[in-house]
Amino acid sequence: VTGGGSGIGWMIARGYARAGARVYIASRKRAELDARIAELGGEGDCRAIEADLSSEAGCDALADELARREPQLHV
């Protein structure tokens, strides 16, 4: 979930994680991502990727990192 460190993005990510999905949240602010994961308190599988999606290179880097971590993506 891009923008998963705050607002609606976080609400979506939290809901999926609590429902049993493995969720990746992405944002430019690593501290914010880590705080959100800590907020779950182990309730759900939520993982953070620091990413800046303001450029094509940043989008490619996020896609590459997800591909490195997961053999398949189910959305």
The biggest sheet, with number of strands, parallel, antiparallel or mixed sense and barrel status, is: 2 strands, parallel
- Unreliable stretches (pLDDT < 50, length at least 5) are none
Structural class: alpha+beta
- The average pLDDT value, as a whole number, equals 94
Shape: globular
The portion of residues forming beta strands comes to: 15-25%
How helical, in percent, are the residues?
A: 40-55%
**Count of helical regions:** 3
Query: What is the C-alpha radius of gyration, as a whole number of Å?
Result: 12 Å
Helix and strand run? HEHEH
List the strand order in the largest sheet: 1-2
How far from one another are the termini? 10 Å
Quantity of strands, as a count: 2
Task: Give a short synopsis of this structure.
The chain has 3 helices and 2 strands; from the N terminus they run αβαβα.
Notes on the protein architecture:
It contains three helices and two strands. It is an alpha+beta fold. Strands 1-2 form a two-stranded parallel sheet. Strand 1, helix 2 and strand 2 form a beta-alpha-beta unit. The longest helix is centred in the C-terminal third of the chain and has 14 residues. The protein is globular. The protein starts with 6 loop residues before the first helix and ends in a 6-residue tail after the last helix.
Task: Give the helix/strand layout.
Blueprint: H1 7-18, E1 22-27, H2 30-40, E2 45-50, H3 56-69
Parallel strand pairs: 1-2
